[in-house]
Design a protein that fits this description.
This protein is α+β, with helices and mostly antiparallel strands and 168 residues long. It has a domain at 25-60 and 82-126. It contains 5 helices and 9 strands; from the N terminus they run E-E-H-H-E-E-E-H-H-H-E-E-E-E. It has helices at 26-39, 44-52, 87-101, 105-111, 115-121, and strands spanning 2-8, 15-20, 62-67, 73-77, 81-84, 122-126, 139-142, 149-151, 158-167. The strands form 3 sheets. It has a 4-stranded antiparallel beta sheet with strand order 2-1-9-8, with no helix packed on it. It has a 3-stranded antiparallel beta sheet with strand order 4-3-7, with no helix packed on it. Strands 5-6 form a two-stranded antiparallel ribbon. The longest helix has 15 residues, at 87-101. The model has no long low-confidence stretch (mean pLDDT 85).
Length: 168
Amino acid sequence: MSQGYGFRCKKCNRSYFAMYGNGLMHEEAYMEKIREIESGKYGVEWKVLYEYIPNLIFDPDRTIYMCGYCELWENDVDVSLYEPINPVETQRCIDEAIKKYGEDGKTIYEAWLSKEERDRGYFPFREYRRICQGCGNVMKKIPYEELKWLPCPDCGELNSHWLYAMGD
């Protein structure tokens, strides 16, 4: 499920949105991020870790990142890596998914893990530090419950949300 807020700038009248989750796009979003990790978009460390350590996963839901210094923000997937608590049980589940769905079974299994399943069956392995493209500082995740305002991406004016949206 996806949910988020719509914003309208008081200064320049631009509309913009901040969404959490992926709705029914989990599998596609997960595959896209795997390709980006494998291509080195998130750095050599992430590429090597993901390639050589079996069954690492990440959360395919979109989230909001904000720089505390220049207030630049991004709406993207958190590619922090998680490792299974019980690798044998995790591999059994993946093998079942492969039997059921074919060669895409591993990706389908990983992409559709709920937050509760991930929290119960995986532990944080490496947190990805998202670097602000504007000033070079580390950006922080903004929890959905705390998102009350976002600066306009065009003019920088701070705006409160005017629309709440949910979708699948």
